[in-house]
Amino acid sequence: MKIITISREFGSGGREIGKRLADELGFDYYDSEIISAVAKKSGLNADYVTMHLSDHGWQNVPITFRGTIGSTAYIQSSKIELLLAQKRVIEEIAALGKDFVIVGRNADVILQGYNPFNIFVCANEESKLRRCKERAPEGEILTDKQLRRKMKSIDKTRAKTRVLMTGTSWGERGSYHLTVNTGGWEIKRLVPVIAQFAGLWFGGQA
User: Fold this and answer.
1) Cα dihedral 167, 73, 49, 9 sign
2) Domain 3-196 adopts which CATH fold?
């Protein structure tokens, strides 16, 4: 079984890379599908689960971490339960034994026992701003200043959640097998090269 995890800065195009890479390799793809599975298992409204498990869901909540979740972390228990449910869903996906690409959700750490190929996607600020504007939800019009604040806030939230759930640092280069800087590139041009590199990496693990 081959697993590829995608961690990414907000606006860098990591989700698009993940979907295109899965299509290129013929792998299954998981992103929002995980949210739906958690909602179904929890018996909760999907919108509620999305709100609490999204990268925006931890904002304005003080989090500290010293060894275990329960030691000095303060956060609503319902959110912790949803994160743990999400972890279980990811583990169940891996247990199916099929090749897949998964975006975000600290899957690189959760699935480390499966020896996944871990990618981190980043970009310069100008490229991220442009991509955010091009892919903005209908009706969302933000200034560059507002977008910069949003990018910083979401990435900070991702970092906090990773520390809380795994005790590791988000974006630390030693945690990934490949770092992709999408600045100035069309995603569709990068994907075949990433797929080739991934194939070589998996071949070297045999």
Assistant:
1) negative
2) Rossmann fold (3.40.50)
Residue 125: count of CB within 10 angstroms of its CB: 15
Tell me how far apart the alpha carbons of residues 136 and 35 are, in angstroms, rounded to a whole number.
21
> Residue 112 carries which DSSP code?
G
Quote the CA–CA distance of 62 and 40 in Å, as a whole number: 28
Return the higher-pLDDT residue of 65 and 78.
Answer: 78
d(CA 185, CA 66): 39
Asked whether the beta carbons of 163 and 106 are under 8 A apart, the reply is: no
DSSP 113-154: GG--EEEEEE--HHHHHHHHHHTPPTT----HHHHHHHHHHH
Q: What is the pLDDT of residues 161-186, one digit of tens each?
A: 888 888 888 988 889 999 999 999 99
Name the residue ranges covered by the structural domains of the chain: 3-196
Place of tokens 């759930």: 165
Sheet containing 178-181: give its strands across: 28-30, 100-103, 3-8, 117-122, 178-181
The alpha carbon of residue 146 and the mean position of all alpha carbons in its chain are separated, in whole angstroms, by 22
**Which of 88, 129, 105, 91 shows the shortest CA–CA distance to 54?**
105
Q: CA 82, CA 154: separation in Å to the nearest integer?
A: 19
